[in-house]
Fold this sequence. Notes:
Largest interface: A-C, 62 and 61 residues
Oligomer: heterotrimer
Bound molecules: FE2/S2 (inorganic) cluster
Shape of chain A: globular
Amino acid sequence: MNEQPKQFKWVGTRTIRPDGVDKVTGRAMYGADLTLPGMLQGKVVRSPHAHARIISIDTSAAEALTGVKAVVTAADMPEADSKLVAAGEAMINFRDLAHNVIARDKVLYDGHAVAAVAATTNDIAERAAALIKVKYEVLPHVIDVLEAMKDDAPVLHDNMFTGGVKPKPEKASNVANRVEFGMGDVEAGFAAADLIIERKFTTEPVHQAYIEPHAVVADMGQDGKVDVWCSSQGHFMVRSFCAGLLKIDMSKIKVSAAEIGGGFGGKTTVYLEPLAIMLSRKAGRPVRMAMSREEVFRGSGPTSGAAMTVKIGATKDGRITAGDATLYFQAGAFPGSPVGPACMTAFTPYNLDNVRVVGFDVVSNRQKVVAYRAPGAPISEYAVESIVDELASKLGIDPIDFRTKNAALEGTKAAYGVTFGAIGMQETLDAAKATEHYKIPLGPNQGRGVASGFWFNIGGESCAGIRINEDGTVALSEGSPDIGGSRASMAIMAAEVLGIDVNKVKPTVVDTDAIGYHFVTGGSRVTFATGMAVVDASKAVVDEMRARVAKVWEVDIEGVVWEDGHARPASTNVGDFDPMSLAEIAAIANKTGGPISGHADINAKGAGPAFGTHICDVEVDPETGFVTVLRYTAVQDVGRAIHPGYVEGQLQGGAAQGIGWALNEAYIYDKNGCVDNPGFLDYRVPVASDLPMIDAILVEVPNPTHPFGVRGVGEVPIIPPLAAVNNAVAAATGTRFTALPLSPPAILAGMAAKN
Amino acid sequence: MVKVVLTSGTAQQFTDGQTAVHVAANNVRQMIQALEAGFPGLGTAIQQTMSVAIDGVILPDPYLETVNEDSEIFVLPKIGGG
Amino acid sequence: MAKQHITTTINGEESEYLCEAQETLLDVLRDQVGLTGTKEGCSSGDCGACSVMLDGVLVCSCLVLGVEAEGKTVETIEGMADGDELHPLQQKFLEEAALQCGFCTPGVLVAAKALLDMNNNPTETEVRYWLAGNLCRCTGYDKIIRAVMDTAADMRGASA
Ligand code: FES
Ligand code: FES
């Protein structure tokens, strides 16, 4: 645990979060908690087929049911423009987005929405949904990524030709795009190697599995103005997507961010929101829609599964000479898997001269993927880190020492192009090596695994407004939905700059009418980018207060400095004035020029790249193949922890999700291409009794572009666990596994094959 | 002239595999114009789907930033996150 | 179908509601009584977000019918604090950052209180197994388990 750096009063302390009491008393309002007068309940009708043409939709019986107020299908949505928009991790086509929200001619996966209905009660809405008759012509489907690439595979989109290759293919296929990154001479690198390991790996799609299902309330008035309340990682994203899909002016749509019950990337796009608006428009009444858990699994995006080939060579003394990888990523029904970032991150923890990574974005009859924490990186780095571990072990080198010999440092050129500034990869290795955990002796059937991970972190658009109230308290407005305690960090940063008690600052996530555009909460950007806006707005307020005091003292503004929450004379030359506190300045604000406020509207640049190293101990039951995680340590360079408690929580939560990905989680499809496990009973996320305590160790190599050194935290911790667990299982069993999840039957089969 | 480095995939698509190209430009806006003129489609692709990194800093919406002979310029896909 | 008239005690207050035979206690609490602190994460008894006490027994309210509460007492998250005084578990969760999104929190708190009311000296393993029915996707459970154990230690200290 880090000590609070001396120069800060609030940064680095564990304050009580401003929204905390609401959340422990049940008062906090989440997506499904709002009720409006006259509100209807909406339900979605979903495809039972993996791939089918829609012949007809008969809504008459549903419409005739008493209590039904509106039914909508794709015919109620204008056909969308073919235009690229940013959606979480990737750019997606607006027309694809529209067709994912509600199927137009074809359904492309089990659970694809085809119609929606609003009625006076949930029960009536459900009965009406069952009365909507959709006639399908079932088409052959394809689920597996390698199958989908075959010449004779059923083609999902007959107007899709592989991008990124020359010449442009003449035949439509399921391969949406090819990307390639690299530097140096990979062949020469392998020629210089003493040991080369090449393996094929697979991972399954996993769901973000936030505990709060998607939920929205939409209310469209007869004047065409719409109020939307929803659980989303970006209410500005919801506004722009709904405006674009429904061709409504943005100024007519106001979106308020409900408290959000987890997202992890999965709430960076729209599903229900446009449908709720369409239903409300037709019914003339507010409509609430909430997904069931089954709908969350069948109708919202997991992340990709993948098939990969990775080859790495090293010299006897442990220097990596070349890395080569080919990644095939499932995009789901529409293009846009995170294969690009997967390629860019694959080898980035290391300082390599010769790298080549080729990626393919492949569609198949699965749920359209959406961002999930560090999109793509856990998958590609799992494969690379598994081979790195095998190289170290075959060369007889400690896995942390092996990584130290190759670690990316300041000045290292990353495989995706840029040259790193100050980064903390090596620092995480040193801290991991120094842990007690790394020295604990292991027993029989036990193994220890190490893995590292890298994520870029991002900046983007954020705004903040700071208003000084008459009594010297502070209202802080910003527009980044708070998914894990960010309001606490914003209050801390404002209090630090203003020099006042953090409890005098009240942060609020305001609606889309009240502040400028914000990019989604994601990419570990909020504490960095929105934090930067908060600091800039706070500084603007400080300057305004200095100006007011300068007027009172009848001196130049340079004659007034701001220290510890007070305006003071810059030097004795200025004159002998008593310091004025923020509250005193606030009290006379009306006499010195009116209310005091400061604003910042920025597109933040200079996000700090972040690295982590994890250690995992497991015990494998040789009888059953069951893996127990005994100990877990997550080390990460966080730049600077504004609120260490919530930063540690990010590391612990990400590690737990990664452990679930490694051991249990996977989408399972039946022979018809339908999801076989759309519930928490069969799609098993880690529960409290599955896990040990997770030690979070924060390394702080400040990001020079952020006023307090913030890098961003939330993405990195989900990257190393997949390989850390895999490597620990290899150590415990003496067998290298190359497919996730490491379920007991898979482990037994692997161990049997070895004996 | 500034040196712009492309990923090998982008290069195969637009520049016949040339991963480093030189154009005359004082800022990113001019650079994108010059790239479009020299390699039709590349400038548009950069604006729609890519980021530019200058001296190690990834810019999500590059436009007005100045560049010169000493700038390290990379064109890479846009990065988001969860 | 005619609605049934149910009389219960919710958080110490006599309450009446009308509900359909198939309506769950969870839906009744959220939609009729207006207590939305109890959350729905799955409706199948797998996530624990809907945990409440029914006649002193911890239940998933999504698996209980509204009509089953007739004549019984129901305790929800809204009744956990004593006026403006938080329950020690609520206070500890805030101090130790044992919540992130907070969506699992009401269910976790109700379940944890049920444990501590029975056993004020649980082992880590006991806490982990007791809370195994309460999914949390944000925290990795570490800080939740610690907060429950630390609250138990405080309560033992206070009563010693
Ligand atoms: S909603 Fe009752 S257990 Fe999940
Ligand atoms: S805090 Fe988000 S699910 Fe537990």
